[in-house]
Amino acid sequence: MKCLYIDIASHRGLLACSDGKRIEAKMHCNESVRDNTLLTMYAEVMANAQWTHADLTHIACITGPGGFTSLRIAVAFCNTLTTELGIPSAGIHLADVYAARAHDQKPLLWIHSTKKQEVFARVFGKNRKEEVQHMSLHMLLEHMPQKGHWCGELIPEHRAALLQTGLPEAVLQETDIIVPALVNEAGYDTNILTPWYGREG
To answer: Of the candidates 23, 185, 99, 92, which has an alpha carbon nearest to the alpha carbon of residue 15?
Structure first.
């Protein structure tokens, strides 16, 4: 496996080359990534891994949630590469990245701020995971679990509210550590990926 991992959806994005056992090269991005920036990052990380364009066998792309433009750029770039190279891709939800980073701290409540008073939330149990829910912050706080941990990318106001619930925040591994296993276990196919925005409007 020679997999390109693309994440420009999260607060600390990552572009990485992984063989499913380790990361051969990586580059973090902390700002909004545009088309030309992503192309430059791709060229640099591939050169650092000493991989050629034709070496790629798989692409794993974070499809959401995240900024509208970032998701559109990432998914379009992934689809262009997979079509051109004739290789499979896998769309990975950001919640699954956080669940992997939290490792065995389950039950786990993943939360993502989407508007001032709205969040996406998903519960990962010991042997199950629920679907992502779109809800108000008020509803989330009213139905907080009594045990487990929480994690996610939150605006300061949401984070402050979560810290007051008494539910501990999960201790997360760096994304770099979990990428090899994540790309190795992802479900790949040749379908065109679509961004996950999670709601209308």
So the answer is: 23
Q: How many domains does the chain contain in total?
A: 2
Measured between alpha carbons, how far is 39 from 142 in angstroms, rounded to an integer? 44
| CATH number, domain with residue 63 | 3.30.420.40
* Domain presence at residue 201: no
Q: What is the pTM of this model?
A: 0.92
145: its two tokens:
């679990």
Residue 57: which residues within 8 A CB-CB, separation 6 or more?
A: 1, 2, 3, 87
CB within 8 Å of 95: residues ≥ 6 apart? 110, 112, 120, 122, 124, 132, 152
Between the alpha carbon of residue 1 and those of residues 7, 41, 45, 175, 180, the distances in Å are 19, 21, 16, 19, 10
CB 110 within 8 A of CB 129: no
Residue 118 covered by a domain:
yes
Provide the 8-state DSSP code for 184. H
Give the phi and the psi of residue 43 in degrees, each rounded to 5: -60, -40
Pairing of strands 58-64, 89-93: parallel
Q: Is residue 33 part of a domain?
A: yes
Residues contacting 39, CB < 8 A, separation 6+: 77
- pLDDT (tens digit per residue) in 9-37: 888 899 999 999 999 999 998 767 777 88
